[in-house]
Amino acid sequence: MMHSRSLLAGIVAITLALGALPAHAVLPDEVMADPAKEARARDLSRELRCMVCQNQSIDDSEAPLARDLRLLVRERIAAGDNDRQVIDFLVARYGEFVLLKPRVNEHTLLLWLTPPLVLLLGGFALWRFGRRKGTPADGEAGSAPALTAEEQARLERLLAVDSAPEQRG
Amino acid sequence: MIAESGHYALVLALGLALIQSVVPLLGARWRDAALMNVARSTALAQLLFVAASFAALVTLHVTSDFSVLNVYENSHSLKPLLYKITGVWGNHEGSMLLWVSILALFGGLVAAFGNNLPLSLRAHVLAVQAWVASAFYLFILITSNPFLRIANPPLEGRDLNPVLQDIGLAVHPPMLYLGYVGFSISFSFAVAALLEGRIDAAWARWVRPWTLVAWIFLTLGIAMGSYWAYYELGWGGWWFWDPVENASLMPWLAGTALLHSALVMEKRNALKVWTVLLAILTFSLSLLGTFLVRSGVLTSVHAFATDPTRGVFILLILCVFIGGSLSLYAWRASALKQGGLFAPISREGALVLNNLLLTTACATVFIGTLYPLALEVLTGEKISVGAPFFNFTFAPLFVPLLIAVPFGPLLAWKRGDLLGAAQRLLAAGIAALLAIALVLAWTYGGATLAPVAIGLAVFVIVGALCDLAERIALFRVPLPISLRRARGLPRATWGTVFAHAGLGVALIGIVCETTWNSEYIGAMKPDDVARVAGYELKLDGLTQRQGPNFREMLAQFTVSRDGEKVSVMTPSKRNFTTRGAATTEAALLTRGASQLYISLGDASADGAIAVRIYHKPLVLLIWWGPVLMAFGGVLSLSDRRLRVGAPKPAKASSRALQAAE
Question: What's the number of domains chain B is made of?
């Protein structure tokens, strides 16, 4: 398997990003003559997944498929497509899987909503918690746990040991 | 013989762990000191046996005993000694053995240095530690035994994956595991507190150093892994939001939050219930990481389904420990009394905000990593969640976090004065604005967001220094007095300054590398010159060389700037004969904190070779930042106040205690 990765997957993040072949993503012969168009192609490439790789963008991947996709992106740009049209073209051909940042739809709603929801719910919980705490029912002295007799004795011994050298010094 | 001894030692360690799982708990229940003390001896003996088992596997690898399957599959007689040793954990079975060895090491450390813990707390902690250990010994013995023999031993091994034949493998996994597994101690303390139904500020004081140790190692481990990826992969990327990286980032985010909430608990006896939950979550995320990585579920959901033994076993461990501890939490947390009131604007309030943002960041990584897996299992639909998603969601979380960082240490406990803190941060604000203006002027017409990010980083760094200046009353009293005050500051305060400044330093590196990175991609022939960021790189020629277990092609570049020779760089490509695999060895030239980076591609028939040259401005700051953070952690750990009751000063008292017991 050419793209079999990661014997060590877990501990070694690196392996995952590497295939059996050396990595050298964009090749000299792919680069577009117009630097502005090439820059657009690079930016788009970073958003697109090399589908036979593990979590690599086509910009990073050395796989032949990634090269084909890079050339395809450049072809569409050369044909005058705007960024959106290029993306739509690739999604129509390869499905949503090709996008490293999924679009919001009914399947990905939960994914996109989780971070703001966690933040809002957490903030709300803190606000409630803060208000409840504001009531004077729970005094501070009352919340300190009482020491058991055993612990009290131990504390005294510790204090005695701690203060002994200080007295000498 | 050695293999069988190693195997047997592991079985004995399991036996000891099982005893340690039960006997101390009974002791605690019956208030029998002798039974509770069993935990100490078994934990130390367990460490001894696991160490023996690990040493056995190392010996087998070093002596190239190919009658052992694990050695045959991952070693080669010609492999350099260093890689024979590191190859021990460069595979599934060996890395799991390293995992349990480190778990036993932490258990042993608690046993050896926990003389000051209340006897029943120590018994509970070590028993919980032994539950985890037993589960993983069973996992290794049943599904991943590294000591299996081959009936007809082959003459030569299959060699280690060439990518792993690097010094990085010697450092990165052990560091990462010391971090990952180190959080098991906070977990055990949390579960022990729930079992005992009792938790106080002293508990936090015991937990914090252990959490700090784990956090320091995890920080360094992640940074080290990132740098390794950077120089080994050959395209200069240093963070890929790969599920495997995310698996280590989640415990780091949760662990960072835990470190801060434990501080509130220690100083103010507040946030107890939350701290216990975080301690459980942090180690649960470590376990989740182990599952993600070890089960093969990441490679493909289908690969997991075709050979599910290992995956299902770890999933089971995961469910039992996470489910069990969270149920225990739900059941017992109400027994833990809350204490310590504070106003929203206070040191506690700032630390709570820190926790909210870090936890949300952690939840983001969690959902982003697991959502595609879950979606595929549930609906069969495949989506990708990669770097663009995480970059997009992380920025809004980290901007407020970074703005808040300098305020935290300047606010008083209980009730702080935001306006006063803002006034004291005036210098930081001015420095940030100056930095933004300078960078904007310098890169006129370029990116607009990057200078603002640099300003934020400067704010964090100067803010940390402002805190320091405030504490030593710099410029308000004569300098010698300030210096004396600086010497007198608690080490933990210095630790905070370094750790927070490290955050800003790393941010500068990240912004500079991503925004002002320049690159050259081209096919070069000998005597061709490439120009990148003011440097001229001339390809002098290509040579072949024979290494110990590979052949390599070296390219020599002469680097000059303004006509003056700076240095010579020699990137190479290696072909490993045994596995028929190749690696690129990038050449790096460090200039201050910036680097030139060359990696080679394929040679073509006409004698040209594909070359990628990068200039990465201030890239090293990305890793100096975490190193500063870890250094801050070490300083904090060496604070006298954290060591109160630690081995040295406590000798007399612990002896007195044991006598009393």
Answer: 4
pLDDT of residue B429: 94
- Range of the structural domain that residue B355 is part of: 171-404
pLDDT class for B102, splitting at 50, 70, 90? very high
Question: Does the CB of A132 have a partner CB in chain B at under 8 Å?
Answer: no
Planar angle of CA B395, B401, B405, nearest 5 degrees: 140
Residue B118 sits in the same domain as residue B218: no
Regarding whether B510 and B538 lie in a shared domain, the answer is no
Q: Report pTM.
A: 0.89
The reply to whether B52 and B65 lie within a common domain is yes
Residue B636 lies in a domain: no
ipTM, two decimals, is 0.83
A-B CB pairs within 8 A amount to 233
Contact between B363 and A115 using a beta-carbon 8 Å cutoff? yes
Strand partners, B159: none
Asked whether residue A29 is assigned to any structural domain, the reply reads: yes
Asked if A110's CB is within 8 angstroms of B338's CB, the reply is: no
Q: In B13-47, which positions are buried (b, 16+ CB within 10 angstroms) versus exposed (e)?
A: bbbbbbbbbebbbebbeeeeeebbbbbbebbbbbb
- Clarify whether residues B430 and B574 are in a common domain: no
| Range of the structural domain that residue A29 is part of | 24-98
User: Who among A6, A9, A107 is closest to B379 (CB)?
Assistant: A107
Q: Which residues of B touch A119 (CB under 8 A)?
A: 356-357, 360, 397
Instruction: Give how many domains chain A has, as a whole number.
Output: 1
SS3 B624: helix
Q: Which of B71-80, B161-170, B224-233, B258-267 has the lowest mean pLDDT?
A: B161-170
Whether B356 and A119 lie within 8 Å, measured CB to CB: yes
CA distance A27 to A30: 6
Neighbouring CB atoms inside 10 A of B303's CB total: 14
Whether B508 and B530 share a structural domain: no
User: Which residues in chain B touch residue A19, judged by CB atoms under 8 angstroms apart?
Assistant: none
B584 vs A7: CB contact, 8 Å cut-off? no
A118 lies in a domain?
A: no
Give the separation between CA B205 and CA B130, rounded to whole angstroms.
22
Q: Closest partner residue to B234 among A22, A96, A140, by Cβ?
A: A22
CA distances from B33 to A92, B168, B195, B353 (A): 70, 45, 18, 42
List pLDDT tens digits, range B255-314. Answer: 999 999 988 888 888 888 889 999 999 999 999 988 888 877 776 666 666 667 888 888
Query: Are B293 and A10 in contact (CB < 8 Å)?
Result: yes
Q: Do residues B243 and B381 both lie within one domain?
A: yes
At B338, the pLDDT band (50, 70, 90 cuts) reads: low
The answer to whether B231 faces chain A, any CB pair under 8 Å, is no
